[in-house]
Amino acid sequence: MKVVIRIGGSVVSSPPNSKLMTQYVDLLKKLKAHGHEIVAVVGGGAIARDLIKIAGEMGLSESDKDWVAIFVSRLFALLFVMRLGDLGCGTVPVSIDETVDCSKQGKIVVMGGLKPGMTTDAVAAMIAERLKARLLIKATDQEGVYTKDPEKFPEATKIDEIKFKDLFASLEEDKHKAGIQQILDPVAVRVLQKSRIKTVVVNGFKPRNILLVIKGKKIGTMIG
Question: The CATH number of the domain where 176 resides is what?
């Protein structure tokens, strides 16, 4: 099965968690051993947002702030690539074409951001569309999609299933901006809705959740 895994920066890099990153590398190896074609897209998390803030204070443009976040995400991706050794691409792809080429070679792909104007959510969605992946899993710092932001509203409840159109209507931000923080960015939602790619949001602090989703277990929130 072709699977794209979006590993949230809120999970592995806010603050950087070497133990959890190693667990994810082991998970990617296990999935590869089971015959799955895997692309993982890693976010920059709080470090990226801190540097975006600094870039803003320095008077840099929105595009410049995006580049700051992109390079942070690529640095975290590089740690994964190094740990994967020969099973990985040996480098962090910086384009969709490079990602496709590496995947065709039977390697595990780990990447960060690509270009200004899109988050790593959007990158994961575009890769999933290009590869015709059957599944996109987002590992985040929440149990799934909620009726409201559970960090702001204690009464928020988790949604087991939701349609893309309903998710889009509930997003706080409907267009990209550097450092955007929400369950999925609007560009990603549009791509996934158009491509009809099954998407599942799970608690990323438990890497085993990825395995459970691939095995067909109902966990987190299914978006379709």
Answer: 3.40.1160.10
Q: Residue 23 class from Cβ within 10 Å (0-12 exposed, 13-18 middle, 19+ buried)? A: middle
Q: Number of structural domains, the chain?
A: 1
Q: Which domain holds residue 108?
A: 2-223
Residues in the chain: 224
- Determine the Cα–Cα distance for residues 186 and 173; give it in Å rounded to an integer: 7
* pLDDT string in tens for the chain (224-residue length): 999 999 999 999 999 999 999 999 999 999 999 999 999 999 999 999 999 999 999 999 999 999 999 999 999 999 999 999 999 999 999 999 999 999 999 999 999 999 998 899 999 999 999 999 999 999 999 999 888 878 888 888 999 999 988 887 766 544 555 545 567 888 888 899 999 999 999 999 999 999 999 999 999 999 98
User: Which residue in 64, 50, 69 sits closest to 122, CA to CA?
Assistant: 69
pTM beyond cutoff 0.70: yes
Residue 93: both structure tokens together: 């792809």
